[in-house]
Structure formats: C-alpha cells, structure tokens
Amino acid sequence: MVAKAVKTKWLWSGFLIILLCYTGVYLLLYTEKDQQTARYRSTPLPSDFKYNFPQNTEELNFQTPRGGLLNALLFKAPKAMGVVCFWKGNGGTLANWGAMAPTFLQFGYDVLITDYRQHGKSKGSISLNNFFSDAQTVYDSLKHRYREADIIVCGYSLGGRVAAHLASDNRPKFTLLIDPASAGGDFSDRFTDILYYPFPSVNGFVFPTEEDVRTASSPVVVVSTDNPNSTAYKLKSYLDSNDHFLALAGSTHETILTHPQTAQLIKKLLSNS
Fold first, then answer.
1. Average pLDDT value for the chain
2. CATH code, residues 32-271
3. Staple partner for 167: which of 118, 152, 216, 266, CB 3.0–4.6 Å?
C-alpha cells in the first residue's frame, strides 16, 4: 500500500510539473507573440534612395491606417490594358523586386509593386491587420486609375497570403497565387495552435488564406509545388469550378516564381485577358 501511495504521489507530481511547464511555455509564447514581427522585417532603404530601372516608372507613396507609409513603384506599359497589383515575398525590397515587372509589362499590363512596412522605404508597425488594411488602401488607389475589371492581383509567398485576402474582399479580374506561404512556416504555426487548443492563438500572424480563397468572388489561380503538405497544394480543395490549380513537378518554393511553366501560365492568362 505504501509503495502504491508513493507511486501515485510521483505520478501526480510529474503531472503537475508537466502542466506547469505547458502553462509556462504557453504564457511565454502568448506574451511575446507581438515580437514575431521580426519575421516580417526586411532591409531598410534611405528615404532619398533612387531606384534605377530602364522601364517607365513612377514612384508612389501611400499613407495607410495606423501610421503606415508604403513606398511603391508603378511600372508603365505603352497603352496598358490594365494593371497587375503584385505582392512580393517577405525578403528584399523594391530595389530587387522591381525586376519582376517585365514579366507582366511584356503583355501590355502596368505593374504596381509595393514594399511592406519596414521593407525598403516603407515605415510603420507590423501586424496582421496592417498587412490587410495596407493592401486594401493600395488596391483602392488603383481603382482611381483603372477599372476594377482591369485589375489583376498576384502574390508570391507571403504576398500570396496578402493577395488572397484582397481577393476575398474585392472583385479583381482574377487573382494569381504563386506558392503562398507565411514567413515563419505554416507547420510550426499550426502545430502550436493545435498544441494549445482551445486557448487563444500564440501566433500573431495566422493568415486565413483557405477561407479567403473559398470566399473569393472572382477567379483564383493557384500555382503550387508538388508537395501535398504545402499550404498552396491544400488550397486545391477550396477552389471551385471557376478557379484553376497547377502543381509544378520538381519545383521548389525558391524556384517556382521563375519556373518556365509559371512563365507560360502568366503568358496564357494575360494574353487571353
């Protein structure tokens, strides 16, 4: 009986230690979730930095809610048929992402590329809500220059998450998502949310991309690697008959943006628009 009581005591002690560790780690992660913004910062550029691109380019600045200032470049095509609102990946700045513009310019579309907060010349605090409201401000500005039916939204990686949210709240011509993913990795974010369910999420940046795609009112095109566990691949089940899904065998997250089949798809989509 004594041995059994000792064993029970040790079991309870072990359970309490695990519970305290579990609770302690949760509280630590929850109180520091706002610090996850470090994942979404990039290289700063001085405010007087001069971009050097051969195309006809207009530099724009957008004042956005909650103290945001976004720097953007509008690349102009002769007799443009519309505009591609392109949302870049998490790293780099307009100084290098501007190289994407010819991908769309060659088919007669203007291209707007924007730096997120704390990327390049853009300023302001980073949050999930700010990602979305900033993107909406930029999109609304385009509607003053172009018919909404002539606006195409496109995003790669983190930009795919932003583009998907725009698609859910607006009616662009169509939305092209190229391997959308968040900066910290979906697996770790989702794992911690499952681990601490039903407590409030410890992740400050849970992008509702699946729901955004499901509720988009205009066509969505998703380009994915052939990894069935990726966020992009799983979006296939949320698409409807007006949408399109393409998985590129042998591509990776790093190579998919410039993959020959991605280029062919962009040509097909824009040439037929």
1. 88
2. 3.40.50.1820
3. 216
